[in-house]
Amino acid sequence: MAYRKPIVLNSGLLEQVQSGDGLDAGAFQLPAGIGATGQRLAVPASGTLLEWVDQDSGPTGVTGATGITGATGATGPQGITGATGATGPQGETGETGATGPQGETGETGATGITGATGITGATGATGPQGETGETGATGPQGEVGETGATGITGATGATGPQGETGETGATGPQGETGETGATGITGATGITGATGITGATGNSGLDNASKTNDNATGVVICTPVYVKSNGNVDMARADNIATTEVFGLVADAVIDAGNPGNIRFGGVLTATTGEWDAVVGTSGGLTPGTIYFLDAGTVGLLTSIGPSGVGEYLERIGRAVSATEMQLNIVPPIRL
To answer: How many H helices and E strands in the chain?
Structure first.
């Protein structure tokens, strides 16, 4: 506790307080030292000695008591106004009240009518065709098929009717016993009947020819080929007169590059449905009754829809008689 000294009036004047001593105003005392910039005096929590405190938003401190009035006569100077008490500390903020329960969610509104679908944009141009991949290695050559049965021989023509037997000559008179009478003249021989018409000649054996494959790769069974100027064959295509004249279809399972093999140019060619699918681009083999033509779009293929482009060639190859058989009837090409 600070040392307290009473205020003394001397001839109506406040006597100077000794430096370092506090000023005693009775109910409170002023501190001896001066506070820092911005500080103010405030009532302490206990005791009566005012304290220097920092400014805050607390309540205004107690106003200092009015100085003692001097004796009548010369009016003594007014007592020093006590410094404004320090603002009390701000009270703590009260706790936030609990959040009320959330209201029920409103019903979802009905879905709006879906707008009409916009017009589909035009299909973009087809990109360029990628390069053709390398041809796979040629598989081993299959065994040569058995030779087809010889065609049926035509029926023998009917035998013509036998000519009538000539009349027997009259018996000569019997001679006298002893000498034999002369033999009567033999009647003329009847006319020989006309020879019957010869029956039609039966179908000859399979219409095959042996040709060398001039293509860089093997050609498989059913592939249409044409004859080149060197006498060898290559895969045909109906887009150029030089490659359009089909000689026949490959009859062996495969003819390797530079090797000879059988080419069927007439009669019936038989292959599996899978082998026909590879050449006509279908599934399940040939369609019976359908006519097949040389394809103009891809080399070495047949098609059931004849070419129709200007400058292409329409060439009939044959008609399917079953899913595995084609009756060959190659017709010269027609330029469109």
So the answer is: 2, 20
pLDDT band at 70; cut points 50, 70, 90: very low
Place of tokens 């016993």: 177
**Residue 250 burial (10 A CB sphere; 0-12, 13-18, 19+):** buried
In percent, how much of the chain has pLDDT > 70? Answer: 50
Determine the residue type at 277. Answer: D
- The DSSP annotation for 131-192 comes to PPPPPPPPPPPPPPPPPPPPPPPPPPPPPPPPPPPPPPPPPPPP--SSSPPPPPPPPPPPPP
CB 260 within 8 A of CB 204: no
242's CB contacts (< 8 A; 6+ apart) are: none
Our measurement of the distance from residue 96's CA atom to the centroid of its chain's CA atoms, rounded to an integer in Å, reads 61
Query: Hey, what long-range contacts does 148-154 have (CB within 8 A, 24 or more apart)?
Result: 148/205, 148/206, 148/267, 150/202, 150/205, 151/202, 151/203, 151/204, 151/205, 152/202, 152/203, 153/199, 153/201, 153/202, 154/198, 154/199, 154/200, 154/201, 154/202
Q: What single letter denotes the amino acid at residue 161?
A: P
Q: How far apart are CA 85 and CA 44, in angstroms?
A: 10
Q: Identify whether the C-beta of residue 227 lies closer than 8 Å to the C-beta of residue 199.
A: no
> Mind listing the pLDDT tens digit for each residue in 92-142?
766 766 766 776 765 765 655 655 655 655 655 655 665 655 655 554 554
pTM of the model: 0.41
> What is the rounded CA–CA span in Å between residue 49 and residue 28?
6
Q: What value does the CA radius of gyration of the chain take, rounded to a whole number of Å?
A: 68
DSSP element (H, E) containing 10: strand 9-10
Query: What pairs with residue 148 in β-bridges?
Result: none
